[in-house]
Amino acid sequence: MAVGYILLAMAMPGSLYIGSILVGMCYGVRLAITVPTASELFGLKYYGLIYNILILNLPLGSFLFSGLLAGILYDMEATTTEGGGNTCVGGHCYRLVFVVMTGACIVGFFLDILLSIRTKNIYTKISVSKKSLATSNRQ
């Protein structure tokens, strides 16, 4: 996803399409793996609550990044017009927003690595229990 945001920040011809496709695909994959990850790591007893907490980042991130951050940074880059409004034309208008979002994605990537290291034992136990069940069912 960070690569997609870097492409969007570069504002080269065609980078809008490629960057948008990459970011969209990453969001799709992220939403698809949230369901099994939540059920495997936390179980099904409080699944609804846990899943909703995990999905809370979508509206919260939209508000913080799109509503606040993008608006503030756009206003900083924009020039005041005669009518009293702000206008900005060109790739520089949202470049800093995409750079900040790239940084957030990189931080998230390293947190994902930390999560995978911490949950390695859980997935090893799941794999061993599945193998032992398969072996006992054959006998």
TrEMBL record:
Output a single Gene Ontology CC term carried by this record: membrane
Keyword terms:
Membrane, Transmembrane, Transmembrane helix
Q: What is the lineage of its organism?
A: Eukaryota, Viridiplantae, Streptophyta, Embryophyta, Tracheophyta
Give me the segments passing through the membrane: 6-29, 49-74, 94-115
Q: Name one Pfam family in it.
A: NFD4_C
Residue stretches making up the NFD4 C-terminal domain: 6-123
Tell me yes or no: is Cell cycle among this UniProt entry's keywords: no
InterPro entries xrefs: MFS_trans_sf (IPR036259), NFD4_C (IPR056555)
Question: Taking the first listed entry, what is the main subcellular location of this protein, grouped into a coarse class?
Answer: membrane
Q: What is the topology of this protein in the membrane according to its UniProt annotation? A: Multi-pass membrane protein
Where does this polypeptide localize? Membrane
Question: What is the protein's name according to its record?
Answer: NFD4 C-terminal domain-containing protein
The domain of life for this entry's organism is Eukaryota
